Amino acid sequence: MTHQTLNTWPHIPVSTAWALAPPLTQSSGAVLVVDGGDRVLGGNPAGAAQFNAMLGVIEGDRLAFRDVACAEALAAARQRLRQDRLGEVIIRFEADAGGPFFALLSGGGDCYALVLPPLARTEAVAGALMSSFGLTPAETRLALTLQAGLTLAEAGRDLDISVNTVRNQLRAIFDKLGLRRQSELARTLAQLEALATA
Length: 198
Hints:
By secondary structure, the protein is α+β, with helices and mostly antiparallel strands. It has two domains: 6-117, 2-Layer Sandwich (Beta-Lactamase); 120-197, Winged helix-like DNA-binding domain superfamily/Winged helix DNA-binding domain (Arc Repressor Mutant, subunit A, Orthogonal Bundle). It has eight helices and seven strands. It has helices spanning 14-20, 45-54, 68-84, 119-133, 137-146, 152-159, 163-177, 182-197, and strands at residues 31-34, 40-43, 56-59, 62-65, 88-94, 100-108, 111-115. The strands form two sheets. A five-stranded antiparallel β-sheet has the order 2-1-7-6-5, sandwiched between helices. The protein has a two-stranded antiparallel ribbon with strand order 3-4. The N and C termini lie far apart (38 Å).
């Protein structure tokens, strides 16, 4: 396995990636520019670090996903961009750390911007849930998984726990955060995310 630095990839400046990515995602700071065959054309260190932390490794100039389902999700997103002539699509990856991991793919033609959420933002929200509200690591994982809009059964499958365990953990989350509904949890997590990036 050879790992190359960004300097050895074919030179496509990050400004090209920003031209491919919608303005609202530009604050992410974690981006890779890829072609239709998972070849890395450019990007920035934050994009490479986030990919390596959550999804796989960059071998030479290619994305190497740890889970083949993630490679298939990226290929399906590229296909949708081409067929539906969309400007961008959200990709749902299954990350190593448990639960879903979302990224945005935009562009088209010969290259795409893969915009990844900064790891620091997710860690900051998780840290706030545990330190400020006393959530356990398991409850925190569930809260972040449910933020994606999954049903309790889907969250249980993603986290490899029973639906009864999901219900019990969700009840504890609601008690600790003073909430009553899953929609309130999604709103609370969005607000915590906004604070984490402020």
